[in-house]
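Lecture notes, part 5. Sequence design as translation. It can be helpful to think of inverse folding as translation between two languages: the language of shapes and the language of residues. The source text, in structure tokens, appears below.
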């Protein structure tokens, strides 16, 4: 791919696709990690002499064409980004495409939520051409959206005069590629979260290469149910039981290990602070739900991570937002912090857990991606990366 650092930006209008899809509550930003991650790219473009810098992103899932504003406006993001940069960032609420609608000379601006436009998710060629008309150089810097074939990720990469990868995207691909191309053994994969179905691709991929697979959360519950365990009213996917059995069989055939909970923390409901018990994982009461792994399982997880050469983590081990069900996830964070393994984490819930337990510094790399992180681990082609590679190949 052509990299932004290798493009002469002097006097040129630069349009950067960032991932500024931050968590909001009542108009307040709960975590500004993605905003802070975008700042170095903007600063580098300005230092390179860019005429102007316009940024674009989506936020949430508004109804496309249903009207702009409200809870899905990027106005709070523009304000926070301005504070992080130490200079104003103007929010461009409406635009048609073309030179007059982007940032002015010496200015930094942010386009309003891309998902207000039906052409974004549809990767509409006309919409992509309108975006391309806002710039002389397009910079794809949003790894977290690289798995989506949208107008702002793929369409514009094909339509813009110059299309290149930003430093954040390049760093993500380099770090993940280095770790996964030839991982130092043993490779321990910790894959938690609510549903097997959302992570089936990465579970199948890692079942073919990881020495140890540690399912967590609702995924672990589904695996337990697949072995015939009674899991009460725990979150699980009955439609995924056969897939779980297949993954267990593949690991067994390779003489690889899959660590399922042997003891669990249960509660009457996921957010319960009372009625917390620890029991055998195979005999959960019918009126109870599994909310975390138990102390025996936590000890085994910590020991396994302690002996790992490479650790990949995506998804919590339990309902970590509930203090009574947080120890399994905390165990992963602490174990990685104390291990010498190369360690990579990714996904929104994973990053939230790291922020909650203060363990980010203990990881070798923390990916900004969720779905893109999983797609990369599963060996899937990222459409936005492929589009940049096609442009580079055509220019060679």
């Amino acid at each position: 791919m052509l990299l932004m650092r290798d493009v002469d930006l002097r006097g040129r209008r630069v349009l950067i696709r960032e991932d500024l899809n931050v968590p909001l509550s009542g108009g307040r930003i709960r975590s500004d990690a993605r905003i802070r991650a975008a700042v170095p790219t903007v600063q580098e473009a300005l230092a390179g002499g860019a005429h102007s810098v316009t940024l674009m992103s989506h936020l949430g899932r508004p109804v496309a064409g249903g009207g702009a504003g409200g809870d899905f406006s990027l106005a709070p993001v523009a304000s926070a980004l301005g504070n992080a940069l130490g200079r104003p960032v103007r929010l461009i609420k409406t635009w048609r495409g073309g030179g007059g609608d982007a940032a002015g000379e010496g200015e930094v601006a942010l386009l309003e939520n891309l998902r207000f436009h039906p052409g974004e998710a549809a990767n509409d060629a006309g919409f992509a051409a309108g975006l391309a008309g806002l710039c002389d150089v397009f910079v794809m810097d949003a790894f977290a959206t690289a798995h989506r074939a949208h107008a702002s990720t793929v369409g514009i990469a094909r339509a813009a005069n110059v299309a290149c990868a930003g430093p954040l995207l390049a760093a993500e691909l380099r770090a993940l590629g280095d770790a996964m191309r030839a991982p130092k053994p043993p490779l321990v994969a910790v894959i938690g979260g609510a549903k097997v179905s959302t992570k089936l691709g990465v579970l199948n991929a890692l079942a073919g290469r990881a020495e140890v697979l540690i399912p967590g959360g609702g995924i672990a519950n589904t695996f337990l149910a697949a072995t015939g365990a009674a899991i009460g009213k725990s979150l699980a996917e009955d439609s995924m039981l056969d897939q779980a059995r297949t993954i267990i069989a593949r690991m067994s055939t390779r003489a690889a290990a899959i660590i399922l909970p042997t003891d669990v923390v249960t509660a009457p409901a996921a957010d319960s602070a009372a009625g917390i018990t620890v029991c055998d994982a195979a005999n959960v009461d019918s009126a109870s739900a599994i909310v975390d792994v138990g102390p025996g399982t936590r000890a085994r997880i910590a020991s396994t991570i302690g002996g790992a050469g490479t650790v990949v983590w995506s998804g919590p081990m339990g309902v970590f937002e509930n203090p009574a069900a947080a120890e399994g996830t905390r165990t992963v964070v602490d174990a990685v912090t104390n291990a010498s393994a190369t360690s990579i984490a990714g996904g929104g819930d994973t990053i939230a857990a790291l922020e909650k337990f203060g363990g980010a510094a203990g990881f070798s790399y923390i990916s900004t991606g969720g779905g893109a992180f999983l797609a990369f681990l599963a060996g899937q082609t990222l459409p936005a990366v492929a589009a940049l590679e096609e442009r580079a190949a055509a220019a060679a």
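The translated text above is only one of many valid answers, since several sequences can fold into similar shapes. The chain has a mean pLDDT of 93.
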